[in-house]
Amino acid sequence: DAGITQSPRHKVTETGTPVTLRCHQTENHRYMYWYRQDPGHGLRLIHYSYGVKDTDKGEVSDGYSVSRSKTEDFLLTLESATSSQTSVYFCAISDGTIISYEQYFGPGTRLTVT
Amino acid sequence: AQSVTQLGSHVSVSEGALVLLRCNYSSSVPPYLFWYVQYPNQGLQLLLKYTTGATLVKGINGFEAEFKKSETSFHLTKPSAHMSDAAEYFCAVSDQSTGNQFYFGTGTSLTVIP
Asked: Which residues in chain B are closer than 8 Å to A42, comparing Cβ atoms?
């Protein structure tokens, strides 16, 4: 299994509070991604990174920010959590080469905003 | 822009019967195609992929899929369903023009009836 960990694995927070989710990889892969998974929507890309300090927006980036100061860590921040951000969040990594183009996923973080 | 359609959000098969999960994609350039499986409370695991070469690809757990360009399809099959195949299955499309972004379908939940 690819070395990807996410922390915390579960979190309950109140509306309006800031929340930071962490993704850590030990594979030295260039690309890292944050997705959210909601029933009926599959996985939707929030933000992704193609290198240290290089990030870009995905399909559902409003209300989220990211940072990548080291190859191994990719942080997702909800500046002011809302109930619509209750979801399961997955981190994924990829080295992006044609031989190994696939993404590998972490175990997920279940976030509940009350 | 890429997109994926998975026909049938829920599929039920009897144990030992053929499994067929449908995936159609939209892409303006030659696609890279993937099938992932997700077991309850886990992350996504790669089943198989098509990037180049042979259009019939074999994956783990006895699954295979065939890339049909003329039909823009990448259906997943398994000759004989096992109880352990019960899970959520996601089809995804990407290509080299999208910055390694993946676009996922909304998923198909497979139930295996004993």
From this structure: 90, 104-107
- Cis status, amide bond into A8, omega within 30 of 0: yes
Residues contacting A89, CB < 8 A, separation 6+:
A6, A21, A34, A35, A36, A37, A46, A76, A108, A109, A110, A111
Q: Chains A and B: how many Cβ contacts under 8 Å?
A: 52
Tell me the chain B residues in contact with residue A33 when contact means C-beta distances shorter than 8 Å.
102
- The shortest C-alpha distance from B13 to chain A (Å) reads 21
Output the tens digit of pLDDT for each of chain B's 114 residues: 788 999 999 999 999 999 999 999 988 778 899 999 999 889 999 999 998 888 999 999 999 999 999 999 999 999 999 999 999 999 999 876 766 789 999 999 999 999
